[in-house]
Structure formats: C-alpha cells, structure tokens
Amino acid sequence: MIEIPLRRSGYGTVRIADSRLWETYGSIGLLSSRRGLAPWPYTNWDRAARRSLTRAEVTIPGWLVPLYRARGGALPSFLLPVPDPSRGDLTADLAALAAVPPARVRQELEQWFPQGVPPEVGPLYADPRARLAELGEFVPRYWRAAMAPYAAPLRVATEEDILLRARILATQGPERLLGSLRGRRLTRRDDVLRLHVGPVVRDRTAVPCVSRLILVPLVFGKGAPYSASAPDGTTAVAYQAEGAAVLLGDAPPPGRRGLAEAPARGDRLDILLGRSRAGVVRGLVAPTTTSDLAATLGLAPSTVSEHLTALVAAGVVRRRREGVRVLYELDGPGVALLRHMDNRRRVNAPENQTS
C-alpha cells in the first residue's frame, strides 16, 4: 500500500493529465495477468489485440510480466515517468524512461523483490540500460498493433473524463474531485490517499512532501494501481477513467469506411436497431460529440446526426450543451437497452439519470 498525504498545504495544485505510456502499461498488464480473455468491457479488445500482436510478431518482454504479477498489477516507479499535463507525448516519456539511471533500477528491483530478484527479471537487473532500450523499441510496436485500432474511442473516453474531472475541480474544488474517483485500488481516508498495490495490507510506503498532485485517467485503469513521484515533490496517481465500455465494439478492419447494415447473427441489439444505429448506442456509453462519434464509428456525420435525432426523440439518448460543444450520452432507458439487449454484465447509469 502506498500512502500519499493530502494535507491542504501539500496538494494545493492538482492537475489532470493523460499518458499514452501509462495507458499502454495498463493494457499490457491486462493481457499478461490472464490466461483466458479479459473481463468485461475489455473482452473484445483482448481478443483482437492478441490476434494483432501475433500477426505483427510482437511479444511482451519476458522480464516485464513478473513485475506485474509481483504486486497485483503494480509497476516499479522507474517505469512510470510523471506525466506532463502540457505534453502528453509518448516519445518524450520513452526518452525519460531511457534516461533512468541503472542504480535506481537495481535499487527499486531489490525493494520490489525483498526475497531476491527472480531469474526472469535477471536480465533487467543485470543490464538496465539495454532492457529499457528494448522497452523503448517494444512500446511503439505494441501500440500500433494492439492500441492504434482503438485510438479514437480511447481518445474520446479519456478527453471526456478529463473534462468531467476538470469541471468538478473548477466548480467544487480538489476535495470533491478526489472524492469522485472510483476503484477498489484507490481509496481515501481523512487526508491520506491510499493506493493498494499488493496483497499484503500491512506493507505501507509513505510518499513525503507532495507539492503537486497529478491524476492520470486510464481506460485500462482496472487493476493498474500506478503511482510515481518526481524529485520536486510532484506525485502522479492513476485512476479508472469513466467510459471504458467504449471498447465493447470491435475495431473496424483497416481501410473500412462505415458499418454494414446487416446485423451480426445472434446480436440482438443489431437486429433490433440495425448495425449502424446499434453502433451509435454502444458508442454513447461516454458523453461524446457527433463528429467524434462519426470518427470513431467510421460513419458520415450526417448519418450519425440522423441516428442521434431519432434516439433523442425516443428518449434513449439525451443531449446537453457544454460551452460551445453539444454532447450526447445514453439516458436511463438507453442504459437499460444496452444492458439487457447487448448481453453485457454492467453498464453504468449516467449522472442525473432521468426516468
């Protein structure tokens, strides 16, 4: 367990920043921690990612997998550069990763494995610089194969979550923002934020002198209790972003434009609504705009607009204005429709749900 003190004088500055590297780690952890398919809502992504990685001959480094398994999905902080809210650049994060001193890598590995570094992690301990360079070459290849086909819905979900948290921060303050974070791995008690990173509750590590807190939303945040600190006292903590159900749909094949209207056999939502309108309903598990939804689904904006008009009229979808943007999201009946007709285990009800 990592304990982060949140004294009012210590976290007056709170920021929200996305990180493609942290998101990538979250997805790798999901793949490497399970022999079978990942749970809902990652199942379709899991199946497609494994196929794509096999075709591209991309293999997760053998020394990386034991790091996830040692502490229930967590990773040593030397692998987690603190995200820069003004940057969000994978290339810069990989450059920072390559610059980590070998002595720091070995020190954290010894702390990670107090009973001795296992043989599988031996190559990293023996030559940290070479292994981190290997990781720097692996991550972009992995991203292209496993994550790029889902880049649009991932971006939509992350951006909408950041907008949601930023609005809470601006209107209600950091106390309410921290209270809005979800997940059994991230809890708060009094003025301490606790990140549960291992099976042993009594093992606690306190983070001193938090000068700035950065919250990192991850669509793949389930089972990814990540945190990192910089020398200036900046501390970053990952949390589960809203809208992970954007991964429910299959990624469109390369070069495909639009969705065929013929429903997939046995897909009740497709049969009921038609495939493109069913795709619109599935795409609205997180608030989004017409243009972003069209880009995600590969449909013409006019087609998406037509579907949205019908769904709003039917009371399945609601529309709201946020500044200059018009956002669409599932209303209560839409959540019920997706939950029952899409054979999914759970779809979160929207805030301020109407009957």
Automatic annotation (TrEMBL):
GO molecular function term, any single one: DNA-binding transcription factor activity
Domain HTH arsR-type: 248-350
Keywords, sorted A to Z: DNA-binding, Transcription, Transcription regulation
A Pfam family matched in the record: HTH_5
PROSITE patterns for the chain: HTH_ARSR_2
InterPro entries according to UniProt: HTH_ArsR_DNA-bd_dom, HTH_CRP, Metal_resp_trans_reg, WH-like_DNA-bd_sf, WH_DNA-bd_sf
Superkingdom: Bacteria
Family matches, as PANTHER family: ARSENICAL RESISTANCE OPERON REPRESSOR ARSR-RELATED, HTH-TYPE TRANSCRIPTIONAL REGULATOR KMTR
Protein name: ArsR family transcriptional regulator
Organism (species): Streptomyces sp. R44
Origin organism lineage: Bacteria, Bacillati, Actinomycetota, Actinomycetes, Kitasatosporales
